[in-house]
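Example record

The entry below shows one chain as it appears in the dataset: sequence first, then structure tokens.
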Amino acid sequence: VLMIAWTGGAFHVKVKAEKLPSQPGKPLPKDAKTHIVQIGKVAPKIDVVGTVASEENVHLSARISAYVSKVHASAGSVVKKGQVLIELDRRDIDEKLAAAEVNLKQARTEYNRTLNLYKKNAATEKSLTAAESMYNGAKSQVAEVKVMQTYTKIKSPIQGIVTDRRVEVGDLANPGQTLLSVYDPLNMRIEVPVPVRLIEKLSLNQAVDITLDRPSRPFKGRVDAIVSEIDPLSRTQEVKVHINNKKGDVLPGTFGRVWVREDSYPAILIPSQAVMSIGQLEMVYVVKDNRVERRMVKSGPSFGKKIEILSGLSQGDVILISPIKED
């Protein structure tokens, strides 16, 4: 029994264990940059998606029925205002013009002969009027055929780029049939269906921000038109926003977004780099008594280089701008 008691320490002097002080977190690193959390006002932006179109998009068609003899442009060609893009076969019109000029020559001769006779009292006024009428009719016919000759050359009414070519040499061009399409790349706009609840946030000539899929850079826009009709299916109104595209590199049909700013509200914004993500968890390093400890937070939308914190921080908290390395 004595041996068991001795081995168990019954005859040794016992020293009471001291409670060592425990501090949470880690020491604040030297040269650490901190940020004091403040509450400010932010105005969130909602994106409304739409499609880019040209403000000047012309579909060229023939005014007469004729076969295509020449095509001077293809899709992607850059054309000038007044440039001939398509030529139609004009042989039939040239024959009509030749016949009309022969008729004009005969009518002129007859009119001059009748006029001389009338001056000599050898022709009646009625015969002079008839000759004059035939002469004027022949002149009108020649002028009309000459106008028809101009229809054989289809010119571009604007300076722009050809988007679609639907005709080849030898095709029969009929009136109203689209042969080529030309758009102005410097005057572009994005058309977006805006929900009714956001319409009051927009007004004519208002400046807005635009982002496009291509080219992927921000653009400035101006509200040009707000259609005064609500789509009963989507409950939206179409808004047309002019795009400042001085480079001319925006293409029709491009997907884009118009950013509509809502009313401002109080929020906590901190530098985005202060938030550390571990899986689906978001954390920041909070500084207290020269110690650094992690705290879970929930973030919201980003505003430039800052991000909104929905929960986890309060005004006056001090956080590290850059997370520290874990051991």
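Notes for this example: The two ends are 50 Å apart (CA to CA). The mean pLDDT is 89.
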